[in-house]
Records
---
Amino acid sequence: MKHALQALALSTALLVSPAANAQKAAASPTTAATSTKSVFPYPIQQKQLANGLNVVTVPFDSPGLASFFLVVRAGSRDEVEPGHTGFAHFFEHVMFRGTEKYSKEQYDEVLQSIGAAANANTSLDRTVYHMTGNARMLEKMFEVEADRFQNLKYSEHDFKAEAGAVKGEYTKNSASLYTQLNEKVADAAFDKHTYEHTTMGFFKDIVDMPNQYQYSLSFFDRFYRPEYTTLLVVGDVKSEDVNKLADKYFASWKRGTYQPNITPEPAQTAPRAVHIQNANFPPLVSLSYRGPAFSDQSKDLPALDVLTTMLFAENSPLYQQLVVKEQKVRFVGGSPNYTRDPYLMTVRASVVKPQDMAYVKDQITKALEEMKTKPVDAKRLADTKSALKYGFLMGLDAPDQVANALSQFIWLTGDVQSLNRFYAQYDQVTAADIQAVAQKYFVPAGLTVGTIGPGATSGLQ
């Protein structure tokens, strides 16, 4: 199974976040219109069943092919009880264990018979189940997915076996120093909020997971409910057929009552730091600042996206200085994360020589400070906004890519139309907005420094 640890990679991570706009999800039968000018190039139809399940259909020119996604708005963020982390990711595994009607082997046989491939992935704010296959076999996709979402069955023996697999996955991933640093940064940056632990959870909880069979049943009962779920179908399909099948297979799914109590994180009042000593690993500096929660009503995230893109692009002064001219770093980059609650924006640099770590940190900090007072070039701003907006759209050339892009906004807000509202904000970003978000978010008191280097300490304090 794929899982979504927040890897220390330099690509923009579209993680997700909640919004008060979840209530705006279509409550009437079917809607395709939105008051915001559509950026998304394909028609979106929505229907909400009486039990709260949101059904989204996007007809897409992919003859004979359809992608079937079930987006569950439950991730490691929702693991609120001490001692029970890692269960959102655990269910990414156990959901393939089968039901009375379809055993694991029979489920695999069905997928093979309809030419479908299925998988799942988990992150801070959600778990996504997806398959792509023969659009003419859409009803069979509905049948097997509705069955396991409503009738999952696994024995205590199966549970322990899967818990062991999760532990093995944790052990494998934790061999990476990037993963270790990621865990340390999250643990240091958060004191109250569940973002303190990564998607995999705390190791002590993973070790104890085989003893938590009864709790696992409660977790499934809480979150695998229609009000937490959006059914998304993209491809060679018609909305009337999708809606009819949704009624047939999902209308009897019982709504739940559980709401997790997420403790907000207090404001950070002083910088923090974590360090991993390793002389045989390329030195690394990460600067993690407190960022905003996702919102499609604010320009903050688009402005931060534009800011970091301009700051770390290969033709930027900082990149040219550190990577090309001085050759002190192998790479430098960063971006905001899109999450339901305020999370971290991390800038990372792989440093060639450990004695240059302090210098590199200072140069990154200096560049961030300049963004607070020095207006960005108008043409470069316009070009960057255009590249970000339409670069996103250029990737929508297959049904699974379309579904994956839409699913991000579904788990952030509960409303697929949030995509159009969010990208409309890019058009409004000004040079003054870039300065404003730099001043608001890149502040020393909200910084957590993470380092990997040969010394016992980073030496950056």
---
Amino acid sequence: MMILIAGPYRGGTNDDPILIKKNLDKLESVALPLFRKGHIPIIGEWVALPLMHLAGSKEIGDSAWDEIQYPVAHRLLEKCDAVLRLEGASKGADNDVRIAQERGLKIYYSLDEIPNLLEK
């Protein structure tokens, strides 16, 4: 399955770049375990951050940021089979879950819930 990892990125950071990096690290911390279970992990920021840079975004919330940040996740959800919602307050991640539910995607709340496709 392709699984969108959703959780706080900007949430709870007051836009502090160090805290944002910690949030991204937390999102990324489950990517390799997901891959090792036989899935394709994807995080919206992996796609959005380079695009925002190319679009000339200079700060969170500028027009390029708004054009790209959340729409990337919404487009990714058209290709994903499931969402892994990590803990923590996040309006963006909550919206990702809502969209995924509307599309009938499976929502997981723990890495342990996700089947290991590589077990024999």
---
Amino acid sequence: MTTDTQQKILDAVDASFDAQLATTRDFVAIPSTRGAEGPCQDMIGDLLRQRGYEVDDWHIDVGDLKDLRGFGPIEHDFSKARTVVGTYRPSNISGKSLILQGHCDVVPAGPLDMWETPPFSPTIKDGRMYGRGACDMKSGTIGALYALDAIKAAELKPTARIHFQSVIEEESTGVGALSTLQRGYRADACFIPEPTGETMVRSQVGVIWFRLKVRGFPVHVFEAGAGANAIMAAYHLIRSLQKLEEEWNERARADRHFKAVAHPLNFNPGIIKGGDWASSVPAWCDVDCRIAVLPGWSIAECQKEILACVSAAARDHRFLSNNPPQVEWSGFLSEGYELTNSAEPEAAFAKAFEAVYGGAVPDRAFTALTDTRFYGLNYNIPSLCFGAKGAAMHGFNEYVELESLRKSTKATALFIAEWCGVERV
């Protein structure tokens, strides 16, 4: 690709950046929490149809996915779950095919009075866009769409097949991405514009979600010693799981990517529910937990370690020793992923990065997970993950940096052109 062609694409990104931000604001304004992603998928479907893409919009059947590698159990109402894929098919095929994927699901906003601006009323100030999902990862999804627009605006068209995929469930199971593979979508490479802080994810952790179900013995608080407090018993188990977390992080010191990362494997008791009355010793407590695992670790073996840890802790507890807790697998059962067999797409992206940022692409060992794992682990499709800078993902006042978004959109556009090839319209 000539320098002149590159510049035309870069100029096209700049020319449409205000429109890109307007579309991003509309996308962020949709409160697409788990089970409520439909309006976002409608919007993506409309945007793809307006641009002339062939659109596939289908309901996800969990029964089709449950036996596939990486499937995580679904506990909520899944009756409205959909995946949307827009496909570009070239008249002349000479380049390499590509999957561009973003997820439209977002995590809950939490207490609204703890946000400086309403989470679903996206606000631009001080060079940032604030809002739930503005960073993770609606701005990246729309950025990828406008990267394709920029190629067209430069009077070019890709010479390879491109699937633009909008998925759900990235934040809890990953079955949205899994559904595209079950549907038959494949390509020579995948690119996911998650907010990676302008770094390439070289290695990422896997994640296991599980629920501790603890039962106690209720009595009136005036005779609390005669009962068994399920909430306090749950804390006993949590402390033991924190020790397992420490053990796993010791093992991580030997990992070639994560040995330089302080405490890469994080355990989090994220949801706690229990008890029925302040003056009754609680009879029950459920704790939803998340723990990370390293690439190459067996999910089944890690599950066994979690069960053994909980069982051992229960044996050391007066009440739980005779009333053992239950452990339920409640979402992610996801392996870690290391980017391999990716020299060709990485070389193409390196050219795009150098043209926009200068220098070599920085690498990152990621202590969260992305949907890249499905493509690499299940079908050996090299899956790159690179995106803009931002902050407060899953927290209050989440934001994406707009100039970083502009640059990442430019890099995405140049990568598409380099990898897929382009010709004059």
